[in-house]
Amino acid sequence: MDIEQKGQPCSGKAMNSPFFLKSILLLSPFVLAPLEHEDPQLGFKIDVPKDWKEIALATNERHLVGKYESDRKYYYTDKTFGYTMENRPSMTMIAFGEKSDSSGPVTGKVDGEKNNVVRITYKNPYDDYLDYLRKKTSGAGWFVDSEETVDVRGIEATAYDIKIEKSSNAPMRVNAWVYHLPGVDIAVEFILFESVYPKLKRSLNKSFKSFKVIERTETRDKSTELLEVDWGDDTPQDRMKTRKAVEENQRKKAQENLPEDWIVKEMSRYLVLNHADKKHAKKVVNQVDAMFKWLDKTFPYVNPEEYVRAPIIRICANVEEERSFQRGSSWSFTNIEILTHKSTAGASSFEWGYLNRRAMSFWFSDKDRSLWRNLPTWLKLGLDGMSRYGGTLKGSKMQFAATSYENESIRESFRQESVLLPSELIRLPVGKFRNVPRGSSLLWECVSFTRWLLEGPGAKSKLTKGLAEEIILHAQVVLEERAAKEKKEKEEDDDEEAEPMTEEEEDAAFEADSNKWEVRTQAFVDEVFRRTFEDWSEKDWASLDKTYMKYLK
């Protein structure tokens, strides 16, 4: 049964929704209270600049406690090259220094029964605001132009004026005041073009000075602050309980962070957070659900006992809102959201391909994260491409077909006599697949062969029927053997490697790690190939090449 409701008022919400503001205007055309951000859990409130809108927060970034963005776009034109960029000034509130246990269980309800099933780590990734800025703007070349202590109604605060110039597309200004409250620091940060700062400085200072301490009327629930989950070496049944607890935890957090004009709706097994229209939301859910069903049907042998979590589907109104949501958020394995937006391109939008790709990644990661990361590269590229570029929903089922880009690329490869035989493609060294550009002939050849193997004649051919299953199952075994071997070697070797001391040593260490990765990956691919094709004859390879090339032409 579908349950539909508006986003519920909660901590960190703007107290004046658009509907409330409209009613105030109707009742009193002369008085309009400023938009306020109020947080009854951390005990503060602050005015938000006029005509700024609230942005939803990611479920896996607990340090962000509020975010707003200007309705107005500003532009910057580079004087040297003449290119123009746009930016919407943003206002972000970040909490630092909250005390919490370093680790412990999170209680979740699974099938109506309480279980302490989640072993978590409460990480504090930022020591303070400057540490946060260092990590969030890595490589941007920022510097503190001024720093001073200010008093706001008896609250001590540190005011930072920060410039971002080096390695930045446009000079940026960061204004941040960090309010030092008992047990927690609250940073209020504005980011905008340097050229716009003089125009908005007065408005920003007005917000900074409006900060007030209020009574903490709500308790911050530690179960909503899940950052990392250690799945451990438990049974699939134990992992299922853990994952269901994560689902419950993240669903609760997602609704708490939701602005009031979003719609919350249970559709099938998915929680949908919708800022577009209902018709589009239904299409999105149908597409994601069809992809999950295709994956279940196509790869039933990939850890069938493992539980795949039901994702949260967040649909932004447009691409700008999606980008605003993404800025400032981080990624973790507890994140179960599939994020998308309603594209103006409609049915022809590449966003549908992204949904397919995200659903596939989500499914494989819950089934076997190590396998998904380490699939033979041609197969990984093929799965990625066939879902991203050629997967469409027909009725209630997914269908995969070649795009015009793929057909033209392969035709061109034939004209240049550069098209690879399957026997050559799957033997290519891993180094050949590094940084394969989108739209390259190698990508399309991986896509074409993978689709032929899974959905085309190759899925029924006596020689290649079940070949993908053999490759994937051998890959799983080799990965398990490698993990056991490396665990044993680590236990036997207690020596710690010395950290690089100079820039030259750091460069050398990076190069060594890069080479090590390629050697390690190539050894894995070679072993999977050997186990899969050890009983193939030259006749078998010739037959594969002939059959596939006939199909391709």
Describe this structure in words.
The chain has 553 residues and is of the alpha+beta class. The chain folds into 3 domains: 4-224, Protein Transport Mog1p, Chain A (3-Layer(aba) Sandwich); 261-364, Glutaredoxin, CATH 3.40.30.160; 375-488 and 519-553, no CATH class. 40% of the residues lie in helices and 23% in strands. It is built from 14 helices and 23 strands. The protein has helices spanning 18-27, 129-136, 197-209, 236-256, 278-298, 319-326, 351-374, 377-390, 404-415, 422-425, 441-454, 467-492, 503-533, 538-552; strands at 4-6, 13-14, 36-39, 44-47, 52-54, 64-70, 74-77, 84-87, 90-96, 103-110, 113-121, 142-152, 155-164, 172-181, 184-193, 212-213, 228-229, 263-267, 270-274, 312-316, 337-341, 391-394, 397-400. Strands 5-6-9-15-14-13-12 form a 7-stranded antiparallel sheet, with helices on one face. A 5-stranded mixed sheet has the order 1-18-19-20-21, sandwiched between helices. A 4-stranded antiparallel sheet has the order 2-3-4-16. A hairpin with a 2-residue loop joins strand 10 and strand 11 (113-121).
What's the short story on this structure?
The chain has 553 residues and is α+β, with helices and mostly antiparallel strands. Helices cover 40% and strands 23% of the residues.
